[in-house]
Amino acid sequence: MDTNDLLQRVKRVEIKTRALTNNIFAGEYHSAFKGRGMSFAEVREYQIGDDVRDIDWNVTARLNRAHIKVFEEERELTVMLLIDVSGSQDFGTRQRTMRELATEIAATIAFSAIQNNDKIGVIFFSDRIEGYIPPKKGRKHILCIIRELLDMKPLHNRTDLSVPIEYLMRVQKRRCIAFLLSDFMDHSDYSQPLLIAGKKHDLVAVQLYDPTMAELPNVGLMKVFDAETGHEQYVDTSSRRVRESHRAWWNSEQQRLDQTLRKNGVDKVSVATDGDYVKALMNLFSNRNKS
User: Is the distance from CB of 30 to CB of 114 less than 8 angstroms?
Assistant: First the structure.
């Protein structure tokens, strides 16, 4: 991809995702992800209905009128995006690839974060760490993240979800919000790293998938290529038995994933490459506000 084409793609992603955060996400994001605590802001005169436990007795005695301490939320957070860039992420049969979908979702979350004065950082991974961008604030920083995502050429194709989770624990010492964006097609056991990280950080799983991963289309003989292993085979999608077997496999995979995430207290949202990620993220934020 030449430089001009890359810059144009970055600009298109910025225009679309900034509009979403300006019009939709900023308030919902703020409510869904709370700050670290409360800090002292000021002292003001007591008003009916104020909590008497907040009375500042020293000021009250000095001025001979009741005054209370006013606190405000310590808003600044650190948001980490753990983004799968393995070979399977370049797959997509509908509107976009999973990599393109991840880029739009990541940019939307990033712009929401900086609108709330939060830092944003990124860990790119396959079955090893492919890149790391330390948390910072600002529009230029987000454009750098988008550019890296669009132009990322991973050195490895396979996926190992324990790798970014363990790396997060090493580089992020303070509590953060971590979004793990992946298709979660990893059959290794990453439960233990997930459990440990979940006790320290607020983890959210964002599952990306293509509709054909869930439901094979009836198009006759179809060549299937596994981008992570390089394995090729032909599948007779006109066979009902083949399609039903594939559907059963997918449902089993989803149950296994849901069970793993639920057991470790990790929220999950799933988004298809032809799906509405705006609606999916809004549902995620809304559910977190209710809990």
Answer: no
The answer to whether 237 and 217 have CB atoms below 8 angstroms apart is yes
**Pairing relation of β-strands 67-73 and 202-209?**
unpaired
- Strands 129-136 and 177-182 turn out to be unpaired
pTM of the model: 0.79
| pLDDT tens-place string over residues 194-240 | 999 988 898 999 999 988 888 888 888 887 767 667 778 888 888 89
Output the CA–CA distances (angstroms, integers) from residue 237 to 219, 241, 250, in the order listed.
Answer: 6, 9, 15
What does the pLDDT look like over 26-37, one tens digit per residue? Answer: 566 666 665 544
Question: Which string of DSSP letters, residue by residue, matches 16-73?
Answer: HHHHHIIIIIHHHHHHHS--S-EEEEEEEE--TTS-GGGB-HHHHHHHTS-EEEEEEE
How far from the centroid of its chain's Cα atoms is residue 198's Cα? 14
Residue type, 25: F
Residues facing 182 on adjacent strands: 207
Structure tokens at 138: 């600002």
Q: How far apart are alpha carbons 13 and 139 in whole angstroms?
A: 13
Can you tell me the distance from the alpha carbon of 99 to that of 232, in angstroms, rounded to the nearest whole number? 21
Under 8 Å between Cβ of 143 and 119: no
Are 30 and 116 in contact by the 8 Å Cβ rule? The answer is yes
- Report the C-alpha gap between 238 and 220 in whole angstroms: 5
Which letter does DSSP use for residue 2 in this model? -
State how far the Cα of 11 lies from the Cα of 16, in Å rounded to an integer: 9
